[in-house]
Amino acid sequence: MNENFIAKLQTNNFLIGSFDAYIDLSKELIKNNSNISNEEIETILKSMPTTYRSAVTNKNGDYIGYIGLYNIDAKNNISSIRFEVICELSEEDKDEILNEYKKYLFDSLNITEIEEFVYITNKQIEVEKKEIVPSSNIIIPNELLIPGITEEDLEKFSQDYEIPKLQLPFTIKSNDRTIGIIGLSSLIWSNKRASLNIFLDKELGDDVSRELSGYIIDDYINFVHNSNVHNITLSVNGSNKNMLEILNNTGMNYYGQIPFSAINGNNIESNLMFQHIPNMKKERGILIPDNNSISLSSLDTDKKELSEKIDLGNGFKMISPKIFEKEGIDSNIVLQAHIKAMQNRDGFTIPLGEDKYFLQKGNGNYGISKALMNYSYVVLDENNNYAGYINILRSNANGKNVEVEIGIDPRIQHKGLGTVVINRFYDELFSTGVASVTSSVFGFNNPSIRLHEKVAELNGIRLESYYINGKLWDMNIYSKTNDIIEKSSLGIHF
Hints:
By secondary structure, the chain is an alpha+beta fold. The chain has helices spanning 23-34, 38-46, 91-109, 151-158, 208-211, 214-226, 241-247, 331-342, 367-372, 417-431, 446-455, and strands spanning 7-10, 14-17, 53-58, 63-73, 78-85, 113-120, 125-129, 145-147, 167-174, 177-188, 193-200, 231-237, 253-264, 267-276, 287-289, 293-295, 309-313, 316-319, 377-380, 386-396, 401-408, 436-442, 457-468, 471-481, 491-493.
């Protein structure tokens, strides 16, 4: 097996995984089967998005071909598939690979229809076409929710809000006036989850809670669930009393907070988090924490950047890949060790993000290797052998709240290294003025849960929001707050 190949999907007899590990063999396969020029080969490969093409091997790692998407119409849940192999497969083997891949497409892209299927061997080309009438959009039985957003309304609301690219967008009307827009962002089909975004007309002021009834949001949520989005979450600044009052009259439930992760003028405050899954019952009398707020200036520090190297004791160190060359560290050796550790990724302290190890992007070494060289720190031992990594996954509130991910090589777990690494990273982040640090840990990852229970506080559980191995798992939200911030246990009831 190519040591760079990482299997994401597997059937009884086959593995489906990293395309780039076998990219040269795939080019050779296309040339031998179709007898076309190198330029035409590149055109074929470019027609298949890198995220959704994959090499296929047998259980021994012997390459047998590739499979990929083209002509993707995500709006209507339609795509086409190209599947090419080095020799003819039995119908049973072909269906075994194809059915597993199609299941992945439904889970990750919500692709429900295959418009064209092209199957190529060294002896034949089979093309199956299906005439598809795009399904009409589900209509929400609510005259106050209008599908789509006009350019005029988008421009108006963009003056007051930073609006992301919205999916399934609707306009909210009241008395023939646009009072808001609603839609999804961060939609991950493979996990059947998304973030709900509601932007309200600021000219209405406190009247907005009277104009926007909670059932309007509930109707939109039901529409989204019918579109195969299972978990919907909404975060609200702790000072946004109008939105909190509106949400109190919806079916959404409060499930936790991310401390000090939202900017409000010259202050930083917490984000309160609400969620909904199908058939969720409304809970009553939930204690919602007070909006603890501090001035941004109280976090000022002379230190603006992370240290390039941190000694951890016992021969271990956290070191920025930016100084590998200066320190005489061979990045290729580190990358190969990282790849091997990932191949046993179930043993990692937390999962490595959203499908970073599947159907890799780019040319040459697959995407995760390139990503490693941009991580905050790689953990090495005294002989510069790879031991893991820790990284800022994303940041919020102008960098005052950061989400981190950590991975410790399974061969050296259970020796306390993960605890040392994450605590030192907390200290380093807080020394640069970070207010709070957050980690997302999935319910199946017991080693990471045990680690975070020791070093951080559980702030909430996002239900059934990570899909793997045929099941939706909970996402546990852990946070650590900068010690200079005083904590309060006071709360308010809604």
